[in-house]
Amino acid sequence: MPQTETLVIIGSGPAAWTAAIYAARANLRPLVFEGEPSRTMLPGGQLMFTTEVENYPGFPEGVTGPEMMERFKDQAVRFGTRVIQEAVTRVELGRHPFAVTPNYGDPVEALSLIVATGARANWLGLPNEERLAQSGGGVSACAVCDGALPLFRDRVLAVVGGGDSAMEEALYLTKFASEVLVIHRRNEFRASPIMADRVLNHPKVRVLWNTQVLEVLGYEHVTGLRLEDTGTGETREIEIGGLFVAIGHTPNTAFLDGQIALHPSGYIRTPEPWRTVTSVDGVFAAGDVMDSYYRQAITAAGTGCMAALEAERWLAHHGHGESPVLETAEAPAS
C-alpha cells in the first residue's frame, strides 16, 4: 500500500520552499518532490539561472539565485521537511487521497497537495544562448530580475520578441542601457497598440524588423549576435552587452493531465481572488505556475505562504490537525 502523506508539495522554487517552511512549522511534516535537472529547468526553478538577486528583501548585498534557493531549502529541512529529488510524472486527482507518482520511486498518497512547479522561460533554442543563460553570461529571460545588474548598465542590450512582454522588457531596460535593440522576426508587433507605441517612440529604443537570431556570440559573456533578415536571408553580426529573450513562458502543468482547471495560457486557474485554491478541493497552487503577471521570487514566496496556510486550514476542517491561527490586525484603541 502506498504511504499516505498529510501534505505533498511539488516543486522547489521560492513558492515550494516557503510553503514547506510554513507547513513544517505547523507540524504537517510536508513531503517535497523537488524535481530533477533537465535541459531547460533545474531544481530550484528559474532562480537557478540568476547569478545575482538584488531585489529580494533581507539581502542588502545581494545573493546568487542558487544560494538563495539552497538557504530556502535548508530552512525548510531544519523544521522537518522531507525532500525527494525526483520529478512527479503523474497525479490522480479524481480520488482521495490523491495519488502522486514520481519518475522512478514508489507512488505516495496525499491528503492535500500544493502544486508549485513554476514556469519555464521559452528560449530560442540556440546552444550558446542556453549555456550563457545558465552560467550568468549576460543572457536572461527577465529584465526586472537582472536588468539593473552592473554588467548590463550603459551597454547596448537586445530584446527578442514582439508581444507585450517584450515591450515591457525593452522599456524597463531603457533605465539602464545606452541603447535597447528590439529584434522581431516580423514587420509589426503582436503587442497591444499602446505598448508598441511606447517602444516605437522611445528615444533609446531601436527596432530591427524582419530579423531573427541565428547565433549568440561570446564565450564567458555575450558579445554579439549573428542575425538573419527573414525576407532576404542576408546575415550580419552586431555587438551587444546583454540579451533578453522575451518570447513567453510555459507553465509546468503537463503532468496534471487536464485534471485541474487552467487558463487558456496554461497557468493554473485559482477561482477566488487572493486565494490559492484550485478547481480540485484539497489542491492548492502557488508561484509562477499560477501567476503569469508578476513572476517574481518574492510574490512566489508570498503565494507559497498563502497555499500552506490554506492547506493547513483545509486539513483541519477535514479533521487532520488543529485549525491555524492567522495573524490579524488589532483594532485601534478607542
At the fourth level of CATH, the homologous superfamily of the largest domain is: FAD/NAD(P)-binding domain
How far do the termini sit from each other?
59 Å
N-to-C series of helices and strands = EHEHEEEEEHEHEHEHEEEEEEEH
Structural class: alpha/beta
Q: Give the strand tally.
A: 17
Question: Would you give the CATH topology of the largest domain?
Answer: FAD/NAD(P)-binding domain
Radius of gyration: 22 Å
Total number of helices: 7
| Oligomerization status of the protein chains | single chain
Q: Average the pLDDT over all residues and give the rounded result.
A: 91
Which CATH class of the largest domain applies here? Alpha Beta
> Architecture of the largest domain in CATH?
3-Layer(bba) Sandwich
How much helix is in the residues? 10-25%
| Integer tally of domains | 2
Describe the protein.
- The chain has 334 residues and is of the alpha/beta class.
- It has two domains: 3-120 and 249-317, FAD/NAD(P)-binding domain (3-Layer(bba) Sandwich), CATH 3.50.50.60; 123-245, FAD/NAD(P)-binding domain, CATH 3.50.50.
- Helix content is 23%, strand content 24%.
- It contains seven helices and 17 strands.
- It has helices at 14-25, 65-78, 127-135, 143-146, 164-173, 193-200, 297-317; strands at 3-10, 31-33, 82-84, 88-92, 98-102, 108-115, 119-121, 139-140, 156-160, 179-183, 205-208, 211-217, 224-229, 235-239, 242-245, 249-251, 283-285.
- Strands 1, 2, 3, 4, 5, 6 and 17 form a seven-stranded mixed beta sheet that branches. It has a five-stranded parallel beta sheet with strand order 8-15-9-10-11.
- The N and C termini lie far apart (59 Å).
- The model is unreliable at 323-334 (pLDDT under 50).
